[in-house]
């Protein structure tokens, strides 16, 4: 039996699965950035020529992004295993990150696909390869990462007074 305020067994398992999924997605996203920061060129076409040109002589600028992505990928999984419910500040940061990932990934996925389908016509030219990369790969990864993180946060929450009352009455 779990003590008051802690996540029940099934909730903790769901939370672990969701944070593990979020961690894997975040590490995959981070690994691509590590590869490019180290000079790799595979899938660079999915970023667009303007991004590639901007960072070609400043690859070191990618490393802070790697650190942020890795922290966002790994810290929630560690917190769920070590000290859930986590302190309020980390929870709020994880919720904020989840919302940003969902909104950023979701909007860019939808808009990118609408552009590719011809529903939205951007003024001037656009980089079709970059649009494909973002609409079909990078932004959906952000979206799924954010959803997995939100699922982890929801399943890890203590269930409230009603469940504690039921637990006490059956003890």
**How do the helices and strands follow one another from N- to C-terminus?**
HHHHHH
Query: What is the rounded Rg?
Result: 20 Å
Strand segment tally: 0
Report the end-to-end length measured between terminal Cα atoms. 9 Å
Number of helical elements: 6
Q: Into how many domains do the coordinates divide?
A: 1
What form results from the Cα inertia axes?
globular
What can be said about the biggest beta sheet? Answer: none
User: Which regions have little confidence, pLDDT < 50, spanning 5+ residues?
Assistant: 1-5, 161-167
| Relative strand content | under 5%
Helix-and-strand structural type = mainly alpha
The averaged pLDDT comes out at 84
Q: Helix amount, in percent?
A: over 70%
Characterize the structure shown.
The longest helix has 29 residues, at 9-37. The protein starts with 8 loop residues before the first helix and ends with a helix. Helix 1 (9-37) packs antiparallel against helix 5 (128-156). The protein has one domain (9-162). The chain has helices at residues 9-37, 49-55, 62-82, 88-116, 128-156, 161-170. The protein is mostly helical and 171 residues long. The chain contains six helices and no strands. This is DUF3995 domain-containing protein. It comes from Kocuria tytonis. It holds the Pfam family DUF3995. The chain crosses the membrane at residues 21-45, 60-80, 92-116, 136-156.
Outline the fold blueprint:
Elements (H helix, E strand, L loop, with lengths): L8 H29 L11 H7 L6 H21 L5 H29 L11 H29 L4 H10 L1
Helix pairs in contact: 1-3, 1-5, 4-5
